[in-house]
């Protein structure tokens, strides 16, 4: 599982380097995110710009990441390709996640429409 972690003062930018986020890599994705999340500042920006295919296991791994966030952290998605955006739209997950249009927003503070921070 190829993930690139770029640390910023206010957030972590995690770039998924795989073309497919599917059953073959979902467990490895969750394992890597499990290592990253405890050390991240308030925002984790997950960049899916290289992912062209996502199945239900890949979507489940992204949902798992949202649920696994420590208290006070937020997850935002960016760089969705048309195929991945379609998966989020068809499953209505675009109503659950705050999705930024491009990864060029990676260094910007959270959007006003950001989902509230995870609290217990």
From TrEMBL:
Similarity-based family: Belongs to the anti-sigma-factor antagonist family.
InterPro entries in UniProt: Anti-sigma_ant (IPR003658), MlaB-like_STAS (IPR058548), STAS_dom (IPR002645), STAS_dom_sf (IPR036513)
Pfam families linked: STAS_2 (PF13466)
Gene Ontology MF, one: anti-sigma factor antagonist activity
Location of the region described as Disordered in the Swiss-Prot/TrEMBL record: 101-120
CDD domains documented for this protein: STAS_anti-anti-sigma_factors
Stored SUPFAM superfamilies: SpoIIaa-like
The organism's place on the tree of life at top rank: Bacteria
Residue ranges of every copy of the STAS domain listed in the record: 21-110
Protein name (Swiss-Prot/TrEMBL): Anti-sigma factor antagonist
